[in-house]
Write a structure and sequence with these properties.
By secondary structure, the chain is α+β, with helices and mostly antiparallel strands. The chain is 22% helix and 16% strand. It is built from 3 helices and 5 strands, in the order E-E-E-E-E-H-H-H. It has a 3-stranded antiparallel beta sheet. A hairpin with a 4-residue loop joins strand 4 and strand 5. Helix 1 crosses helix 2. The two termini are 26 Å apart. The N terminus is likely disordered.
Amino acid sequence: MTGKTPLLLAAGAALTVFLGGSAGAASAAPAAHSTAPAAQPTSHVPASTPLRPDSRCLVWWKETTNYAGMTAGYSWAWNVTVYPGASGDRVKEIQCLTDYHGQGPSALDGIYGPDTVAAVKRVQARCQFPPSQQDGIVGPQTWRCLRIEE
């Protein structure tokens, strides 16, 4: 593993993420050592992925059998519609992804309130949705827009 530093993240389950050598992993907590061989990571941040120092969430590229896209590790939803008034991990994922795209709400609290609606509308506008579809609701098209890498 030359030039890569492993980080251990906790987002429901442990997930190994590899960051490029200059990505400042000095703040990472040391991982527990095991005699078992390390599993190959399923998610990683490629060296070409721009890490945004102004983003308040760690967001990385993830690939699965059917989908590939950016994630913050709270939810891997793609086809679920999330409405204002919702709360929980899917909302936290939306908030982190809007923040990653520079359109985030003021709070990353997992509550789909007016700030999150406005952030989603800004992302929908950035993805050139027609004005009639810039509604602040996250459905399949908006999930795809949120999960693209810039």
